[in-house]
Amino acid sequence: MDSIVVTGGRELSGEIPIAGAKNACLTLMPATILSEEPLTLTNAPRLSDIKTMTQLLESLGAEAASMQEGQVLTLSSHNLDNHIADYDIVRKMRASNLVLGPMLARLGHAVVSLPGGCAIGARPMDLHIFGLEKLGAEIELKDGYLHAKAPRGLKGAEIELAFASVGATENILMASTLAKGTTVIRNAAREPEIVDLADCLRKMGAQIEGDGTSEIVIQGVDRLHGATHPVVTDRIELGTYMLAPAIAGGEVECLGGKISLVESFCQKLDAAGIHVEETAKGLKVARRNGRVSAVDVTTEPFPGFPTDLQAQMMAMLCTAEGTSTLHETIFENRFMHAPELTRMGANIEVHGGTATVHGVEKLKGAPVMATDLRASVSLILAGLAAEGETIVSRVYHLDRGYEKVVRKLTSVGAKVERVRE
Ligand code: EPZ
């Protein structure tokens, strides 16, 4: 397993290109199932999760062709000859469950393994099931697989989600595009990835309004046609790299970034003493003075502070002036980076869903272990300003969501290298 070695103490300067959004691409890809015609995605990120989703779609009978080293993906679901999404693939990546809604809509049946828990939480699918059953699906859990069928097709319905689940909104939205009649999704997730999916579905001929708000209205149509669609910029990668100069000092311009993608995150950066300027090319980020100030953060569904940036924000707050509190309200176990940061000299107390971070002057490099995707990158960020070397092991987590991390950080002056163990 590879490790990443970070030698701290270098100020950063230069530009970092931000890739297409992993979490948009992972829902745009299953949308190909809804049409017999090809769907081409441009600006696709080159990540192991995208490869996993490609494998899953191919296992269902779809054809995938990628150009420009994977930045352009053409997916064709003309001949789907298998409706079983196997545990072996699904257990590696929860987003595999996003084939459920499209398969029900296109094929009228689907067998999808439950993803099982993951490091950050149990991650059930009750809201997905609730919404799809409201559309007329019959779903039964057997041997760890969801057996779903819609013998009479799907029918539009009014669906109120108990929680603004991103995945449940995506599954229901995709399924409802081919349902008979009108569907209303209330308390829908509002993430930019939902809007990107709706934009792509509209290009395919779907009739959708209200995406980006809590109420999405879909008029079902008989069929969808092919389309070409650019994957939206990855707001989580954007926020991650905005924290690099905030932690290490200097100034970095994140190319393709827009304030609108990270509004609540930018408000917290501003309160911490970080200057963010929107330019024609992206977002320019620099500390206003030597040390950042402590801030309190509560993760919430969009447009609130994103849970996927909580670990990275904690890395910055470890050396802030004062005490910060982070409330993680989305997942039940998303502080696994805290004990690793403590190994680097951070002073963090975790009680349930709240982490209290007492700022220290400086962290010290140490061998640390990545536990999940966002935790792994938070350890690398912490290493940028730590004294000496930080060795982050198990970086396969990183490859799921961040392409070319070493190249992007070294291009702005950081000393970061990947070593094979
Ligand atoms: C998406 O996961 C993202 N993944 C996650 O990013 C992100 O953290 C999450 O949304 C929240 O923003 C992808 O888009 C591929 P949810 P998802 O359904 O759809 C509970 C990353 O690091 N819940 O909004 O699974 C669930 O257990 C990943 O890129 C139910 O209880 O998120 C969790 O506590 C991590 N029942 C909360 O809701 C359900 O049926 C949020 O889940 C569904 C969800």
From TrEMBL:
Keyword vocabulary terms for this entry: Cell cycle, Cell division, Cell shape, Cell wall biogenesis/degradation, Cytoplasm, Peptidoglycan synthesis, Pyruvate, Transferase
Residue numbers annotated as active site: C118 (proton donor)
Catalyses which reaction(s): phosphoenolpyruvate + UDP-N-acetyl-alpha-D-glucosamine = UDP-N-acetyl-3-O-(1-carboxyvinyl)-alpha-D-glucosamine + phosphate
Subcellular location: Cytoplasm
Gene Ontology, cellular component aspect: cytoplasm
InterPro entries linked: Enolpyruvate_Tfrase_dom, Enolpyruvate_Tfrase_sf, MurA_subfamily, RNA3'P_cycl/enolpyr_Trfase_a/b, UDP_GlcNAc_COvinyl_MurA
Organism: Aliiroseovarius halocynthiae
Binding residues for UDP-N-acetyl-alpha-D-glucosamine: R94, R123, P124, M125, D126, L127, D308, I330
Protein's recorded name: UDP-N-acetylglucosamine 1-carboxyvinyltransferase
Protein's GO biological process: cell division; cell wall organization; peptidoglycan biosynthetic process; regulation of cell shape; UDP-N-acetylgalactosamine biosynthetic process
Domain Enolpyruvate transferase: 6-409
Function comment: Cell wall formation. Adds enolpyruvyl to UDP-N-acetylglucosamine.
Gene Ontology molecular-function annotations: UDP-N-acetylglucosamine 1-carboxyvinyltransferase activity
Enzyme class of the recorded protein, top EC level: transferase
Pathway membership: Cell wall biogenesis; peptidoglycan biosynthesis
Subcellular location, principal: cytoplasm
Modification 2-(S-cysteinyl)pyruvic acid O-phosphothioketal, positions: C118
Enzyme Commission code: 2.5.1.7
Residues reported in the UniProt entry to bind phosphoenolpyruvate: K22, N23
Pfam families: EPSP_synthase (PF00275)
Family: Belongs to the EPSP synthase family. MurA subfamily.
